[in-house]
Design a protein that fits this description.
8-stranded mixed beta sheet; mainly beta; single chain
Length: 295
């Protein structure tokens, strides 16, 4: 039986991570914080935190179109157009791992035990977007989560939450509020699958979905005013699947950070990489275009 912070479409057993979630929930309750933030089945929403200006500049502020933020990772120099999260939070480059653009892919190589969950934030490169100018948009990435040293093999069996995908920070003042959608090896019960995760004030809630043995696919985030929807798609899928919608009303009109991330959860040796073929952005008119438009 899954606890309130951890829901899976698989049918067996609790993982180490779910036990940690239960502990975190107990701590939150003891401190007077409500950790539930439960998403109602069939399209309900989980409440999100407030936004922040997060800095004086925006990557998109000078762009003629939000699509100018696209990156096909064909030129190694394009990494200079991205901010490294650890540096943005006052740290130094390379704290969470390394990056490399090669062969048309961005490779994110996280250090061991480097991941996004609760107050932990891992390897990530992002761009700032001012929502006062671009309040409705979709961002899509082509992603492959694989064993380190192999562009084919998925993250090793026996590991958990080794994945790569998209992230949006809804408050850049402290990076404690964010939404993630990723693909990779999830918990033992799910195996290879997608993760949709909402974090508010460093309290994370996540949902898992099988990818039918695939470690290659596509992920999307759809931002419509204060709502963020996670979407997933496998190479053979004819259409996108909407997973979850989370409300972060406080982000409206402020700067957000959108980019690429990896998880290498609770390991002594770094053993996975995330490979990204592209990341693309597009403005939309309303939520009906979240899964209809191509990028």
């Amino acid at each position: 039986m899954w606890n309130q912070n951890y829901q899976s479409n698989s049918s067996s057993g609790l993982s180490t991570k779910s036990l940690l979630i239960a502990i975190a929930a107990s701590v939150a309750l003891a401190s007077g914080c409500d950790p539930k933030l439960i998403k109602k089945g069939g399209g309900g929403a989980a409440s999100g935190g407030g936004g922040g200006t997060g800095g004086s500049s925006s990557n998109a502020s000078a762009a003629a179109s939000i699509s100018d933020l696209n990156d096909e990772f064909d030129a190694s120099s394009s990494i200079s157009n991205w901010e490294e999260r650890s540096v943005a939070e006052g740290g130094v480059t390379g704290t969470d791992g390394s990056s490399l653009i090669s062969g048309g892919y961005l490779l994110l190589k996280p250090n061991a035990n480097n991941y996004f969950y609760q107050g932990n934030r891992g390897l990530n490169f992002f761009k700032r977007i001012n929502l006062s100018r671009y309040s409705r948009f979709i961002v899509e990435a082509s992603v492959r989560a694989h064993e380190r040293g192999s562009m084919v093999n998925p993250p090793p069996v026996g590991t958990e939450f080794h994945s790569a995908g998209l992230i949006i920070y809804t408050d850049l003042t402290d990076f404690q509020d964010w939404v993630v959608v990723n693909l990779g090896r999830q918990d033992v019960a799910t195996g290879l699958g997608f993760e949709s995760k909402n974090t508010v004030n460093n309290v994370s809630n996540l949902w898992l979905y099988s990818s039918s043995g695939e470690n290659v696919g596509f992920v999307r985030l759809c931002v419509v005013d204060g709502n963020i929807t996670t979407l997933t798609k496998l190479p053979a899928d004819p259409a996108w699947t909407q997973r979850d919608t989370f409300t972060h009303a406080g982000m409206v009109g402020n700067n957000v950070g959108v980019g690429l991330m990896t998880n290498d959860y609770l390991t002594a040796v770094a053993d996975m990489d995330g490979a990204f073929d592209y990341i693309r952005f597009r403005e939309i008119s309303d939520a009906t275009e979240c899964d209809r438009l191509s990028l």
